[in-house]
Amino acid sequence: QTNQPNAGNILFDGQQAPYSTTSPTVTITIVGHQQNYNIIVYAENACGRGKNTHIKLRGSVSAPASISGPLVVCGGSTYTYSSSTIANTTGYFWELIPANAGTITTSGNQTVSVQFAPGFTNAQLCVNGKTTFNLNGPALCINISSTAPIPGLVSGNTNPCQGATETYTIDPVVGATSYIWTAPAGASVSGNGTTATVVFPPGSFSGNVCVSAVSACGTSSSASCLVVTSGSVPTIGVISGFINSICGATNVNYSLATSDASNYFWTVPAGATLAGGQGSNSINVDFSNTYAGGNITVDATYACGIANASLAVSGAPTTPTVSPASICANGSNLYVANSSGATSYTWTVTGGAIFYQNPPVNSEIGINWSAGGGSFTVTANNDCGSSAPFALSTNCRIAGDQTLAEELKANVYPNPTFGKLNVDFESTVEGKYLLTVMDMTGRIMHEMPVEAAKGINHLELEMGSLAKGMYMLHLRNNAGQRVVIRVVTE
């Protein structure tokens, strides 16, 4: 219940006081004028009523919803401001903070005049209503300045292309009559509204696109800026894929590691066909059986231009590798050439006699070298062309070969051998030798040190564990001189 004389101005769950309910919760509705109320509640049961408790309610008014009037003003001038209606207020009470910012006339009315002091910069204008008990209701305040507010965020491209034209915008600024735009050095800017057009220089640049707001009383205290840096065409890297021996190959993949371009345009040379992937960073290419070679190129399109890359692709085999990579005067070797994509090999020998070839591929060749040594070149071939040649000349001289051969009078037997091999040689002095057996690829199959006596020396080698074929027996002294003898096992 309530003990005010105007108790009928307040309802409990829609009922006038006194009101009884079994619920500990009640909804209060104020239906009369502003009053101060003392709400009392008792707890009752069959044995009687307990002590009461109470709460005091004070009447109030709402804050105004809005204040109309200029937010940008000039010092020394008078402006009109109005509050929206405040229900049940006894008046409108205005305040300027700080008080020396100006003078309010006709205070107490819903509309007032404010004369701002000369030299005025910033202030708050507030208004509130009052209750019938002269209590202040909540206030609404607005910020007033002698200059336009600082503009909000600048929107636009932060990485404009060199030489590009771009548009930048801001939201309108309250009280602004125009705007001042600036751009980085070398750029030109046009427009004095919320939108500006900037033409950037053709070279690289960096800086700020800025805007200040201008009012009748001055310019905003600072500008709003957007950092811009000249955009550029990125590096797309290299094209990856096979570059040799693709004669007649199909679905050969070529690709870029980068994938951020808006488009990719590929071209392939004559004899090659783009099988798929145009427009993407990866393509497949078919090559004819007579492809003569050329460049695969790609143009990647970006906002600031086109980046390109090129890859030279040959249908011919790779330059062959040859084993062993040594030529020894007076020596004999079986050379094996290897090249990706090769169907045949062409050898040119100088200073040696060919004792073996494996036509028609000719990937293997046996050569007996003269006392002066020699040289050879070999190219790999297929239907699409020939590789660059591999060349080798004497790089292993058996010092004093001929003299040592004559002194040692080395002899092996039986040759060909079916197992055991006898080696006889005559040494003019006591000394150490090294006996080595190699296959025709230069792989060491057997090696043993020899303590030679002055005069005739006899050695026995077991060759039965070796595969049938040709081997080279090297007998070398401490000075590095050697005698090389070709041995055949059957």
Description:
With 490 residues, the protein is mainly β. Helices cover 2% and strands 47% of the residues. The protein has one helix and 42 strands. It has a four-stranded antiparallel β-sheet with strand order 8-9-12-11, with no helix packed on it. The longest helix is centred in the last third of the chain and has 8 residues.
How much helical structure, as a percent, in the residues? under 10%
Quote the average pLDDT: 89
Q: Which strand order does the major sheet show?
A: 8-9-12-11
Quaternary structure: single chain
Rg on CA atoms, Å: 52 Å
**Low-pLDDT residue spans:** none
> What separation lies between the terminal Cα atoms?
128 Å
β content, as a range?
over 45%
- Largest beta-sheet details: 4 strands, antiparallel
Shape: elongated
Number of helices: 1
Secondary structure: elements and pairs:
Layout: E1 10-12, E2 15-16, E3 28-30, E4 37-41, E5 44-45, E6 48-49, E7 53-57, E8 67-68, E9 78-83, E10 92-97, E11 102-105, E12 111-116, E13 122-129, E14 140-145, E15 165-169, E16 178-182, E17 188-190, E18 195-199, E19 206-215, E20 218-219, E21 224-229, E22 252-255, E23 263-267, E24 272-276, E25 282-287, E26 294-302, E27 305-313, E28 321-323, E29 332-338, E30 344-350, E31 352-357, E32 364-369, E33 375-382, E34 385-386, E35 390-393, H1 401-408, E36 411-413, E37 420-427, E38 431-439, E39 444-452, E40 455-462, E41 469-477, E42 482-489
Antiparallel strand pairs: 1-2, 1-3, 4-7, 5-6, 8-9, 9-12, 10-13, 11-12, 13-14, 15-18, 16-19, 17-18, 19-20, 19-21, 22-25, 23-26, 24-25, 26-27, 28-29, 29-32, 30-33, 31-32, 33-34, 33-35, 36-37, 37-40, 38-39, 38-41, 41-42
